[in-house]
Amino acid sequence: MKRIVWICLAVAASLALSGCDRRSPVSTPATDAAPPAGAPPATVPTYTDQDISDAWIYVLGRLLVLRQQKLDLAEGMKWNAIVHRKPGAVEWPNPNLDVAYSEAWVALDDTSCTVVTVPKITGRYYTVQFLNGWGETLANINARTQPARDWGEFAVCLDGAAVNLPADVVRVDVPARYLRMLARVELGDDWAQAVALQERFALRPTGTPPPPVLPTIADFDPQHLPGVEAFDNAVAVLDSERDLSPGMDAVAANVRAIAQAIGDPAERARVDQVVRGKAHADLAKASATIGHGTLKNGWVRPSVAGSYGNDWLGRTLINLGGIWANQFDEVVYFKGNLDGTNTQLNGDHVYTMTFPKDALPSRFADYFWSVIAVDPRFARVLPNPQNRFLLNRESGLKFSPDGSLTLYFAADRPKDAPDPNWLPTPKGQDYRLTFRFYGPKGGVKDGSYYPPPVVRQAP
Length: 459
Fold this sequence. Notes:
Layout: H1 49-75, E1 83-84, E2 99-107, E3 114-118, E4 126-131, E5 137-141, E6 152-158, E7 170-174, E8 178-186, H2 191-198, E9 202-205, H3 234-239, H4 249-261, H5 265-286, E10 294-296, E11 299-301, H6 312-322, E12 331-336, E13 351-355, E14 365-374, E15 390-392, E16 405-410, E17 422-424, E18 432-440, H7 442-446, E19 455-456
Parallel strand pairs: 6-7, 16-17
Antiparallel strand pairs: 1-2, 2-8, 3-6, 3-9, 4-5, 4-8, 10-11, 12-18, 13-16, 13-19, 14-15, 14-18
């Protein structure tokens, strides 16, 4: 399968979800004991349409990870074998165009760890991230998490695994047997050096842990989400990966109850109608603010990323539009599809974004920052004749005499815009912006800072 280069942060829609909190379960299952699979329900189910919507959104978060896992393995990825991707050449949502990626699926057991070899890297950001089958980040290996020594060999082990390791190998315990590994190496202004470092990352298991038996799921893609099919084999889907997050028992129990009840054709038709009519709409509405995120200056900061607590709505939204998102200690993302008057951005207009000299974006990132323009519905980076897809510190940006920085977003370069400060946007099309701060600090880290508004210029 040929890899697609440009896909970024989150799904988008036009309205915010109101009146509902998706951070805690809303109901209990319809019955204490479900009938055998395929049998009609013994009684009329007591779950509501909202319960169906919540259960569908919840299980979709797991299905999205399973879908990507199956695509990777079908393409030829092997367990405990690292694959180095060329810069940008990845297919999942939310790749960062500032980094080179290496990836793997990792299997562990009670007597086997997987050893990660990390080269010595100075003056350049890197991290090796490990996630479970729900998209939850379980560990990062980098200079922040390993201040004593951030290079060498690290053994990723199942909690309590009885494995003897050499004295110079650092053990990192995780509570899951099967992991997604994602290594990122900052490209900076020397891509060749970054790629050379990337290729020195390596994996080796200390034993032969068995791979998982993956449950069967319906075919779907992020542009064509499933209906009632999301509940087909949902019991096996839930059983295949324990949800480590707290407070999920009731919504998970509703998934199981619905999965049993749709053995009745009438109930299956009802659930499908609710999913396609309500659950899809609930998810779309919530995506405007990435669930429980906050909108300010036309920018949305998500309330969760990488680690989700009991916020299954936020987790599913990010798995859909930004799978493999890392924790806020590593990176903070902002989504901006509105100008300063809360009007949708469109390529027929010229916009500017100005940072005062005492609040330049570099002030809020220990490592790097960038901004890209993406399709507002599917979050794909938008092509342009200039083949310029982001602005960052390597863009050769020009500062104003007073030390401020103005960025320009337009289909054609504005006459007063320095060329390096201009990000081309698609004429006649809506779009949105994604702003990243890697190594967040100051107001970005504590949540008090939002990027300045995007200002539409007069024709």
